Each structure stands twice: as structure tokens, then as C-alpha cells.
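## Example pair
The file below holds two records. Each record gives the amino-acid sequence first, followed by its C-alpha cell line.
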Amino acid sequence: MMEILRRRRRRRLSQPEPQIGDSESDLGRRIVPDEDIRREYVDRILSDERWVWKVCLLARLLNAMLVRTYFNPDEHWQSLEVAHRMVFGYGHLTWEWDRGIRSYVHPLIFAALYKVLAITGLDTPWFMARSPRLLQAVFAAACDVYLFKLTTRIFGSRSAFWALFAQMINWFTFFCMTRTLSNSLETTLTIAALFYWPKGKDLKLRYCSRWVSSRQLALMIAAFSCALRPTNAVIWLYVGVVHLFQTPSKFRFLLAEVLPIGLVSLTLTALIDRWMYGYWTLVPLNFLKFNFLSSGGDFYGTHPWHWYFSQGFPVMVFSFLPLTVYGIWISKRWYYAGLIGWVLGVYSLLGHKEFRFVLPVLPLAMMFAGYALHSLEDRRTKPEENDPVAEDSFDSSSSSEAGVSRKQAASANFQTATKFWWILMFVFSTNMPAALYTSVIHQRGGEAVMEYLAKEASHNRVDSVLFLMPCHSTPFYSSLHKNISMRFLDCSPSDQADYIDEADRFKIQPTEFLSTMFSVQNLQLPSHIVVYDSVDQKILPFLKEHSYRLERRFFHAHFPVDRELQANVLLYTLCGDARSSTVLL
């Protein structure tokens, strides 16, 4: 590396200083050698995997610290809330756990983290809120590294450098990968398994150790990913069927690898769920029956069949979309492009659609974008090495023609480099503002109010909390970390045709709903009420009548999130003598 720097310094010293009136070709002739040195320096760094790990880990840890917004309830309610209940003995289990359609495999990872925090006495509000995302940042960094390795194997290290660049600044990756969603870990496992999976000329089995081949290791990782999210089997159905047609050892592949690894994974998952549920249940089967066979997910809304192609995935890829399409076209790697299309197509069959469902194939789109960037970067014009005009230095006219040829090449290089940097500036300036806005600002009120309540509860200034918001709009006990009474508006699905859940009943008639709750149901007043400012005016008479005052206002969003603008989250506190008479809800 020092030798590269010395060569770069000698090259600079040997070049004349730029003069007033220098043409683009003169500048281009000076720029290109430095560019070669710079690329060689970067390639030398990228050849050391430890440097890649350090860069990715540092970037994702910073990413995790910047994420302060609320995205999807599953980030808290299907992982951290369950893990908190497992370790500390209190926490809310949603209706999915009553029906056995969620596995405890994913929450166990964060339960182990919480156990360490409890043993070391670090289970403070700050660590409880930040440490899960910091742990997820390690998994996200692993995804980045394996994407780099996968792209290196397919396209080479320079394309891998640009694929890593695209992965790092893509707005949705930045926004989602450090969140404690099972989809985020599923993405890491998918990319790692694809790296170890034999493909093309690499069908001959490679061995990662004395006993385990790369294909077996890929199957183990894929099995773990399917245990986290059974729908990950959609990816491995495509990969497995294609490989079955290509591999000469079909029976060995099916009977000696897929079948035993699948059975072991299924058995371990069933044992874990038997231990946690207290009874035997096959979660993958329950999950697939609810989401695929009964359309249970439609309860949370539906989208048109083309949504992933026309809106969902293009929004995730964002300004990298032209580069991704161009990379697919010039690379002709239809296997990985087909995998993206297969996943989007299969998920399009479902009525309920979400961005995060197709997150595992987003890094593949960034891989193609990286290849496109490399191809654009490499478009430099060079004089013919064996051009007799360029080599003949005895004839003055020939020498003049050679100089013109070099000037034309240098000018073309300068223009190509300029265009390339404009492309980089475009994708950077479109993705990073979106990434920071959605991660730091947009929908931050739900997490901010829980962070405040956690601090207040640690000083015994919170007795009970009522959330008059759409269900699961905020984190819960996993963030508060205090065993006090808390209640939210229930929105569990029902088999009754005309059933209206609590959240909808409150939205339709908020005042009447509260009167029924505290008069007919005879519930005691909570010490704190959390509500969006879009409805607080409707319940203001109730709040004034029962001596509630506005304690804090937390910014939430600049524009409507669902059907109406929820600009702020408001925290009301029961004051005066009424506070002393409150009991648990």
C-alpha cells in the first residue's frame, strides 16, 4: 500500500502543473494516471476482507444509531415484545401467538441479548431501546459483506465495490436493514446462502470445511431462514428447482442433503415452539395456511396484483432502477434477474402486500446496479497499443498525429469521468436525503413518546398508560421496561362478519367510546393518555372534565401517513387530586 502511495507521489511530481488556457484534453491526460493509481489503491483495500467487514460494521452501527422512527409494528410487537416477556416475565403477546402462526426462533435471538443486559445490570431505558438495533446492525453488516463477496464471485471486485456503494446508500436498505424485523435477518441469511450456493461453472461441490460442502452450508442457512419466515421457501423453491435440473447428482442432492437438513430444521423449530407454547404446534404450516390458503393477511389491507412491479419494488430501488435494469441487460445474468422476477411474481398473487416482504431480493438489484456502475466507470478511450502511428516517433507528421490521437482519447476520458461522477452525485443526492428523512424524522413520534415515558417510569412518575391510537402505533413494554398497567385499542381480526374492533369504534365515536370504557366498564382513569393530535380536539371535553393536562407534544409526520395527517403525538397527564386516586387499568 505504501508503494502505491509512493508511485502516486512520483507520478504527480513528474507531471507539469496545470496552466491557464489548458484544454480539457490536457487536464484529462493528467487525470487518468491518478485515477489508475486511485483504483489500484481501492482494489488493494477491497482484497482484504477484514477492511470490508470494518467499513460495513462501522457504517451499519452508525445507521442503527440514526434510525429513530417507527416503520412497522412487527419490528417491536413480533420480536422485542415477545423477547421481553420471555426474559423479564411481562410483555404483550398479539393475537398471532394465540393462533400459533409465529415461531419463537426469531424472538429468542433478542431474548439472549436481553438476558445479557439483565445479568450485567445494563437493562436501562437507553440500552433497552438501542441495543436490539445495534445487534441487528451486525447482521446488516454481514449482509453487506456477503453481497460484496457474492458480487465479487459473479462480476469481480470492482463491480463488488460499486454494489457495496449502492447497498450502503440505497434509501430503503438504510431505512429498514437495522430494524429488528424478521425480514431484515431473512435478507442477510438469503444473501449469505446464495453466496455459498453452487451456480453455473461452479456446480462442482466446494468444501467449506472437511465435512461440510458449500451447498450443504447454503442449505443449512436457507433452512434457518425458512424457520424465521416460512415464506422464504419461495426463494429456495426457485433456486432448488433450477439446481435440480443442472446438477448431475440429483439423488444425492435431494435424499442426502435437502431431506435430512430440512427434517432437522423442522424438528428443531418444532421443539423450540413446543417448549415456548407449551403444546405441539407446527408453526410453518399454520403460517402458510393463514397467509396463503385463507388470505388472512387481507385483513390488513390489499393492493392490486401489479403493485410490486408498478410501485412497491421500484420505490425500494428508487433512483438505482435505471442502473439495475441496465446492469441486468448488459450482464445477461438471467438467473439472478429471474429470481427477482419470481419473488415479485409469487408475492403478487397475495392480496396483502408490503415493501418488507420482498426485501431479500433488494440486494440483488443493488448487485446489478453495481455492475452497471462499473461498466460506466470503465468506459475510457485508450490509444491502440500497436498503432504504428502512435509508435513512430521519427516522422514529425506521424508524431503530430499520435499527439492528436492521445489528446482525443484524454478528452473523451475527461468527458466520460465527468458524466460518471454526475451519475454518482445523482444517486447519492436522491437516496441519502430520503434515507435520513425516513429514518430520523418521518413518524418519529411513536418512539419519542415511549422514550420519554420510559425515563419518567424509571423515576416512578408513571402509574398507567392508555394509548388512544390505532393499535400497535408505538413500542410497548420492550421500550418502557417497567411493569405498569398499559392498554391500547385492540384491532385483532375476528371471524364475525360485522365485527368492528376497538380502534375503529373509537375513530367513529371517540367520546361515546371513552364514556363506555370508563363508565359502563368501570375502568379507572390512567395517569397518562397518548393520542394523535388529529383526534384530540374530539375528546377534549372528556380530557378537561377529568382533569387531564397536555404534558408534552412530540412531532410525528409532515404529511398524512394513513388516511389523515397525524402531525404530532400528544401526551396528557392526569393532574391534581384525581392523580392520587388512579389505580391500574
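Second record, same layout:
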Amino acid sequence: MDNELAADNSCLKQQQQQQDLSSKDVEMEISVLAVAGMFTLDLYTYILVVTESRCRGTIGGKSVYEIVSVAALPLDYYNGKAALQQLLGGGNAQKYRKSSLALQPLAPSNQQNNTAPGAELDRHSYTSAKKIVGDSTNSDSRLRSQSQSQQQPAMQKESDIGALQDASLGWLSPQLSKLLGRSRASTVSSSATASSASPSTASIGVDTLAATAQAKNAVNPENNNDSSLSAQRMEGRIIEELTRIFGSSGMFYSYDHDLTRSLQERGKQSVAIEKAPLSLFAAQDYWFNHNIQRQMLAADAHEWALPLIQGCVQIAICEIKDGDSFQVCVLSRRNWRRIGMRYERRGADAEGHVANFVETEQILTVEMGSQQTHHASFVQTRGSMPFYWKQPPAGLQPPPVVVKGDAENASVCALHLQREIDRLGRQVLVNLVEQKGREAVVGSKYASIVGQCVADEMVDACMIRYIPWDFHQETRGMRYETLQQLLEHMQREIADMGYYWCTGGQVFIEQRGVFRVNCMDCLDRTNVVQSTLARFVLNEQLVRLGVHVAPDQGLVAYSGLESTLNHLWANNGDYISKQYAGTSAMK
């Protein structure tokens, strides 16, 4: 209760500061770097923009940025409209430069003459929101023609408002889902009160909360202040949580490089496609902000619908002898389909999407003097065991529980495995959970379900190999050298799988299959094993490219290289752990 009161006071303080700024007519400046999306709450439609980011390096000569802060600008206000108009009017050039907008402070649009004639804003329709740009938009003809042709905004039922919010935002975090639920309940209650007090409102057909508030004000002005204040408080808290998620949860983007797909997947497309907007070809499973960009995409505004990934991008230059160097990048992209925090999200859903599913790609870039640049990559995945199970957060070490029967679990497991086979090829399932003790109940169930999927021909037996390896037992007493035994055990799979290697558009090797590694959380143990596999493959790649002159000694032959790789993979583990568990990695 105290936390909620503090949050309400914080929101009220911010609103009071905005009102004070408006009364003083002070200008402020906001730097718009990219559009993360658009979304609708009870009071306003917002444009979510990136206002600060840091460059993490380059991949293939194309810069990659990590988001530092975002801002949610209400389109009913001057700065939201100006930002949208500026971004749409900028065209492709806007993607390559920072747009510093000197804007008036937040002030309601009905208090300023900044709306084009006839450009009435409907808070639940992106199509009508586009009217604010009118003929000034030159970056997208479809966008301009739609805004001119549609004269009446599309109306939306009050009962759909909450569903719209939940579909586009509620999945981002449990706290946000909770806030949206409260907001929806408040909206329905307020709307019902207004409808009973003023029957004429329903006949008008305007279903937004703002229209309801106007009707309530006409009937009983004294009630308007309390309900409006409550709605503003709730909306402020939702915005605060949303900006926290996008500003501090490891969000990355690039204007030119598709972070949602691996080098191998991107290598299959033509050179002409490379120049097309990223949103036309981005992989939806890893396009983290896809839900809040659907309205832009529906209007064919692909030029400024910039895909974001949640995960990690770590890039380092590794120096070896004689001044030679190469670049290594560790790039992790989280699947958003079953997003959620540890303990609250375990196992699979009905469509075979699993919790904490992450695709990690290690990218090697080597420039050989005046020769062409070599690119090599190695992809691995991690994810919760793909069947119905849960782990209620009771105590320090809650026991996992298998949910539903074998038939249902086998069916959903097969859905998941077949999807990954179709996408990446043969799946080598490395299960690191304990084979004795509290974890054994789900570890043994995973083995039996995979066996059932193969026996019942739900998946091709040739495309699956299951490898159990009790990490805690095998490395007990800090005996991490036993990881070498795991590598030796998987030599056949490593050799058959290979990696991706291309130079100047010519592909020499393609990766055939993937290691799918898991433990309970798919965090600490998984990250250690994946980093071990990645190091081994990196050594193989350097030997193949002629960079490594001491292949038998491994990467430790070069001072500093091992510590650089440790740093990259440790940071990768920390990012993913914070996103799923809320804390840094333990190993």
C-alpha cells in the first residue's frame, strides 16, 4: 500500500511539474532516435520513441545500439504530434540521424491551436491519429492516402479497450499486466456510471474514456475531478512501468542490420532485399516490439517500424600476435512468445512456445588485409523443457511439478521440437538438470516425453538426439575441467553440425542443426555449457581461416583472448538472467 501511495504521489508530482512548465510556456528538447511503437491506453494514444542509446559496436560494418531511455509521447499533445510528423516527414534519411525536436511542454491539444483543420484525433484508432500529419507526410504514400480518405474514425467498444491493452502490452511484465487489469476495471466501472447517468452518450457512439468523462462532467462536474485524477494516476503508473521495461531491460536495435535473424538466415536473401526496410523481413518470434508496431505495419509504414530485440549484444576486438586482430560478437535474442519471469513462466504453452527461449549467435569477423572480410557464426538455443510443468514460488527451493498427462505433454513437446527442426535442423538436446533430487522429476519426464515423441513418430528420430548431463554432479567441487569430457562426448555432433562461413557473399559452410541446451532456469549452467561449445567452435573457425597458428593449444595460446571471451559470455549470462530472473548470473 505504501509503495502504491508513493507511486501515485510520484505521478502527481510529475503531472504538477508538467502543468507548471506549461504555465511558464517553457520549451523543452527531446531527441527522437527511433520509433519503438504506438499503443492506446484509456486516456490517450501514445507514440513510444527512443530518446537515448549507446553504440555497442558494429556487425558487418553496421552499428548496433542499446536503448538507454525511451519516452511515451501522447499524440493528443503537441510534442507527440510534432514527433510523429517529424519522423514521418523525414523518410529514410531520418533513420540515420538524430532528430532534436524543440517542443512546447505537455499541454492538452484543445488548449493549443496545433491540430490541422478537420484532424480530429480518435484515441483508439491509429488511422485517425495519422490525420495529424496530413499532406506533410512524404515518406509513405499509403499512409498519406489513408489519412486523407478516411473521414470518420473507427469506433471501438468499451469492452474491447482492455482486450486491446492486454494484447499489445500486458504480456511485457506481470506488474504491467496487473496495472492494465486495474485500469480496465476502472474504465468499465466509470463507463457504466456515465452510461446510466447520460443515456444520450451511448447514442452518440463515442466509446472512449475521454468521451465518457465529458458526459460525466456534463451531468455532475464534481465527480469528474476524482475519476479523471484516478485515471491519470493509473495511466502514469502504466507509462512508468512501460518506459522502465524498454529503457532498462536490454533492448537493442540497428538501423541496417536485422538483429532478429542469424547471419545464415540473412545470407539466404538477395542483395536487393538488403536495402528494404527491416520490418518487411524481421523474424516475428524475436521482434520484441512487434505487438506495438502492428498499427504502423497495417498502414504500410514499414520505413519507421524499427524492430527491437531483447537479449544481449556484446562485441569485442580480440588481438593476437603481430598486430593481427579479429572481432567476436555474442548476440542473444529472446523469443517473446512466452515471456515472463522465473517461477511465473515455466515449460511450454499449448502452441509449443517455451519460457526463456533464447537464440544465441557467436559471430566471428576477420579482415585479411586487402582481402575480403570473412564472417563465421555459430548458433545455439536455450529454453525451458518443452512440456507442461510449473514451479510455484514457495520457499527457497520450490519443487517442480509436472502438469497434465503424458499424451498432452508429448503433443506439445512435438510441436516445439518440430518447429525448431523446421527452422534450424537437427536438434541435439542437452539436458543439464539434476538426475537425482528435486529436479529429477522434470528431468526424467523430459527424457521419457522425448522418447515417446520419437517412438510414436511425432518427430523424425534422425533429427533428435537427447543427451543428459547432470551439471551439478559432474562439476561438483568446482571441477569445471570435466566440461572437456562433455565436449569429447559430443564430438560427432559438433563435426556434423558445423557452422556458418561466408566471404564476399559466397557461402562455404552452412550450419546443419543446433545444440538446444537447458537446465531448470536455462541461465547459469546453460550459459557455461554454451560458452564452452562456442569456444571450441571458435577455435575450429580460426584454424580454418588460417588465423590460429597453434590449434593444439586452443585459445589459451593467446594472452588476453580467454579473458575477453569470458567477459563477453559472462555479460551475456547477466543480461539474460536479469531479464528472466531479475538478478545477475551466478556463474
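Notes on the second record: The two ends are 36 Å apart (CA to CA). Confidence is low (pLDDT under 50) at residues 17-27, 91-166, 188-223.
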